[in-house]
Amino acid sequence: MxxxxxxxxTRSAALLLLGDGRLPAGGYAHSAGLEQAIARGWVRSAEDLxxxxxxxxxxxxxxxxxxxxxxxxxxxxxxxDEDLAALGPALAELxxxxxxxxxxxxxxxxxxxxxxxxxxxxxxxxxxxGPVLEAAGPVLQQPIAYGVVAASxxxxxxxxxxxxxxxxxxxxxxxxxxxxxxxxxxxxxCLAELxxxxxxxxxxxxxxxARSPHELPALTAxxxxxxxxxxxxxxxxxxxx
Length: 241
Hints:
By secondary structure, this protein is mostly helical. The protein is built from eleven helices and no strands. The chain is globular, with a radius of gyration of 17 Å.
């Protein structure tokens, strides 16, 4: 018998836990390409930042959210059926499809590092869910790891999609304060103004939860791939990406 989702973690608390940038899963060390975008002059102002965030959530953010929703659906199904043996292969198929949608080797490496760190953190934070997290595999790309963790905490596919979309916007928004001369309130205003779009995109991503992996979105953001590769060779860096 699998352990049920932790009774002492309510849905709201679980969402807050996973959405907290202080969660020791490595996200705070990344700027999601913003550092290089600033270095190259692509982002110079609050208006540029808002456009950067909007472009991110509507492209790679939506893709990641759809994969998170799909991972949550497969994890929840395996938990309900008490068939964790089927979980690893199902997630591995998702992982391969997401890799195929990520042209940049640097971004693939970062996504795997962050996914591994999230799973490791949650094994310590919610040990009762260890069997589910172990069955998922030691290394998954971050969006898929978010889907697994969301399911283990009793969150649904839409929650998983929303968390990943928020992370896609919040990571560079928070990094912007360290990287450019910008009012912290302005960066969070950018996030607040994206609230309706984030909600709509989460709903869209959730419609892919039960779909075949090859049917999931394949939107691209070429400048993000270019920025990630340039960042690897950048001499002075505050962030890992």
